[in-house]
Amino acid sequence: MIARVRVPATSANLGPGFDTLGLALTLYNELTLAEADRVTVSVQGEGQGQLPATAANVVAQAARALFEAAGRRFTGVAIECVNRIPLSRGLGSSAAAWLGGMLGANALAGTPLDRAALLALAARAEGHPDNVAAALHGGLTVSCETPAGVLAVSVPLPDTIRWVVLIPELTSATAEARAVLPPTVPRADAVFNIQRASLLLASLQAKRVDLLHAAMHDRLHEPYRLTLFPWMPAVVAAARAAGALGCVLSGAGPSLLAAVAEDPGGVGRAMTAALSAAGVPGQARLLDVDTRGAVVEAG
After folding, report:
1. What does the alpha-carbon distance between residue 231 and residue 172 come to, in Å, rounded to a whole number?
2. What's the CA gap between 122 and 118, in Å, rounded?
3. Per-residue pLDDT of the chain (299 residues; tens, 9 = 90+)
């Protein structure tokens, strides 16, 4: 039996929605998993020659975890990965690997786990639910961890918004980006983020894109991560000056995500130029919102 899986890239947080909001984008990793008596892994594209081609590969770990969670004996799996999501750039490559491996293994095992159980398992492996929830469900997803599992709801988006992703040619480890965050924050900053996250969701629901300029701000993680990405304020300012409705760090970075109503090409060029002026090369990409989420075909 063979399972084919396609998993979208994701951008988490969208500014104020730390560990809560995730947006699925039209950039994909494709995986093929087949029954086997040992673990083999091949990687093409992003991570080729860099990611392990052994049982240590995250996709292989995910497959084993799925079988164990389902109470099934794991003998091995043959995995082929075609990766297009850049590694360690804040675009959900780790979430795509965990979710893709689990979805493929679930299909090979006869689908013992439903989507809610898969989401909870993938979120535990990833450490937070925002990326995996968006990758599973597609669109803009609000996720929440509860004692009973992960709750996730997809939120409609105005089709007038375009999304520009600036991908610097440098990487960032999520662990390092989390290590710079303080254990506590001032109450004023917590209130600030609650207000902005609420305004962001209300603005999108009401199609009031004019309010995004105020909604897409953060005080819980972006200010602390400036030590890792000191060029970020200049790029954000350039994006907004070029007409972006908002510009935020994508996940743990270093990529940035801009919401644009007009001239996305101009915004992308402005962001790239500002990044280049700081001595960092990068590429701006215009991506649509993936509304399907992860897709599995088995046969």
Report:
1. 14
2. 6
3. 899 999 999 999 999 999 999 999 999 999 999 999 999 999 999 999 999 999 999 999 999 999 999 999 999 999 999 999 999 999 999 999 999 999 999 999 999 999 999 999 999 999 999 999 999 999 999 999 999 899 999 998 998 999 999 999 988 878 888 899 999 999 999 999 999 999 999 999 999 999 999 999 999 999 999 999 999 999 999 999 999 999 999 999 999 999 999 999 999 999 999 999 999 999 999 999 999 999 999 87
**Residue 155: closest CA among 138, 135, 174:** 138
| Cβ atoms of 100 and 59 closer than 8 Å | yes
Q: Are the CB atoms for 53 and 11 separated by under 8 Å?
A: no
- How far is Cα 217 from Cα 97, in angstroms, rounded to an integer? 29
Contacts of 22 (CB under 8 A, 6+ apart): 10, 11, 12, 92, 130, 131, 132, 133, 134, 135, 140, 141, 143
Contacts of 144 (CB under 8 A, 6+ apart): 20, 129, 150, 151, 152
pTM above 0.85, yes or no: yes
Domains in the chain, CATH or no CATH each: 2-155 (3.30.230.10), 162-287 (3.30.70.890)
Amino acid at site 23: L
CA distance 110 to 298: 10
82: three-class secondary structure by DSSP:
strand
Neighbour tally for 286: CB within 10 Å:
15
